[in-house]
Amino acid sequence: MIISSWCFICAFAVLIDKVCLEVTGVIGGSVVLPCSAKHDCKPQDIYVHWRDKNGKIVHDVIKGSQTRTQNSPYKNRAESFPAEYLKGNFSIKLINLTHSDAGKYICHIIHSSELQIVELIIKVSLQDTVEAVIGGSVILPCSTAEHDLKLQNINVHWRQNGSTNVHDITKEQAIAAQDQHQRFKNRTEAFPEEYVRGNYSIKLNNLTHADAGKYNCHITPSNEQETVELIIKESRSKSDTVGTSLLWVCTVLLTGASCTYYL
Ligand SMILES: *[C@@H]1O[C@H](CO)[C@@H](O)[C@H](O)[C@H]1NC(C)=O
Ligand SMILES: *[C@@H]1O[C@H](CO)[C@@H](O)[C@H](O)[C@H]1NC(C)=O
Ligand SMILES: *[C@@H]1O[C@H](CO)[C@@H](O)[C@H](O)[C@H]1NC(C)=O
Ligand SMILES: *[C@@H]1O[C@H](CO)[C@@H](O)[C@H](O)[C@H]1NC(C)=O
Ligand SMILES: *[C@@H]1O[C@H](CO)[C@@H](O)[C@H](O)[C@H]1NC(C)=O
Ligand SMILES: *[C@@H]1O[C@H](CO)[C@@H](O)[C@H](O)[C@H]1NC(C)=O
Questions:
Q1: What range(s) does the Ig-like domain occupy (predicted)?
Q2: Helix (H, G, I), strand (E, B) or coil at 155
Q3: Ligand 1: does its nearest atom lie under 6 Å from the Cβ of 111?
Q4: Which residues face 140 on adjacent strands?
Q5: 211 and 204 Cβ atoms separated by less than 8 Å
Q6: What is the pLDDT of residue 250?
Q7: Is the CB of residue 241 below 6 angstroms from any atom belonging to ligand 5?
């Protein structure tokens, strides 16, 4: 059975690559990898194989029942939804995501000879952008779910636009501060009490226009990397001000007051 399904996969791999779905998961979280059949069939005829990029068994549905024959990285981490089988839904849920889960997954619906490929993207955090106002402050998020790392070995490098040294978290904090770019001196704060939770977010204060851009946190030695884009806005946007003033005028008109208000 396995050999024949792999031949099938090889023969169709080129075609299938073009209909590849993408889903995003976050480290430590869970994700549903979708797979739907176009043809329905009797429960006892349902055979579905989920395989990873290395051909490892992620999940199998045999004769309409999910099985526990999973290769070690997926043991107790992947399950399907039996109540959905008759709708042709053979999606699986993968829990406790790690970096090594990233990559392509093949859903082979054997009974109807259908193949679907899903690409799983793994991120440290799902937050891609943060917004803040000039003069204000902002938290730039960065987390890892790898708690077994020894704190004293961890280094976190925060950079703006790929190169400017924003903040380094190391055990030699005073030395790290010397390499910080002038523009960020005295404006960054880390949260040492959060490190045990794998949280290496930093706070950036007294924001200016020059702070806009992409911020990258690189955690070593686990070699995790996350980017967040900081968007800087004027302290109050024009449309907000006008909106509030118009609302003010309307309120006043409705209540029949007869004073003059300034826009
Ligand atoms: C998934 O993570 C939870 C919480 O961290 C843990 O209790 C559970 O044992 C993990 N399950 C597997 C299969 O790794
Ligand atoms: C399949 O079932 C899962 C779990 O209930 C659900 O999240 C997903 O949306 C379903 N997919 C379709 C195409 O109905
Ligand atoms: C940062 O703060 C220190 C002490 O509070 C001060 O001596 C230094 O001039 C400040 N640096 C900048 C760039 O503001
Ligand atoms: C990390 O710590 C900061 C500061 O305490 C907090 O605002 C943020 O929510 C924390 N992030 C996570 C994922 O816990
Ligand atoms: C920077 O922000 C802090 C706290 O928000 C404030 O106390 C300080 O005066 C600000 N410094 C400058 C130079 O604006
Ligand atoms: C960083 O890049 C953004 C665009 O991505 C740009 O607007 C900003 O000026 C750059 N900042 C610096 C200091 O290079």
A1: 28-118, 119-229
A2: strand
A3: no
A4: 202
A5: yes
A6: 35
A7: no
* pLDDT, tens digit (0-9, with 9 covering 90-100), for 41-81: 888 899 999 999 999 999 999 999 999 899 999 999 999 99
| Ligand 2 mutation target, pool 36, 81, 85, 109, most atoms within 8 A of CB | 81
The reply to whether ligand 4 has any atom less than 6 angstroms from the CB of 139 is: yes
Does this model's pTM top 0.85? My answer is no
Closest ligand 1 atom to residue 76 Cα is: 13
Q: What pLDDT was estimated at residue 163?
A: 94
Question: What pLDDT, on the 0 to 100 scale, is given for residue 196?
Answer: 86
For residue 222, give both structure tokens. Answer: 């686990």
Separation CA 104–CA 226 (nearest Å): 21
In angstroms, what CA-CA distances link 26 with 71, 167, 171?
22, 24, 27
**Any atom of ligand 5 within 6 Å of the Cβ of 208:** no
Which parts of the chain register pLDDT below 70? Answer: 1-19, 145-149, 236-263
Q: Any idea what the Cα angle at residue 37 is, between residues 34 and 41, rounded to 5°?
A: 135
**Considering only CA atoms, which residue is closest to atom 10 of ligand 6?**
213
In the prediction, which pLDDT does 43 show? 86
Residues 29 and 94: beta-carbon distance below 8 Å? no
Please give the distance, rounded to the nearest whole angstrom, from the Cα atom of residue 46 to the centre of ligand 1: 29
* Domains defined along the chain, listed by start: 2-123 (2.60.40.10), 129-233 (2.60.40.10)
Is residue 24 within 8 A of residue 36, CB to CB? The reply is: no
- Reading the block at residue 190, the tokens are 């880390």
d(CA 84, ligand 3 centre) in Å:
62
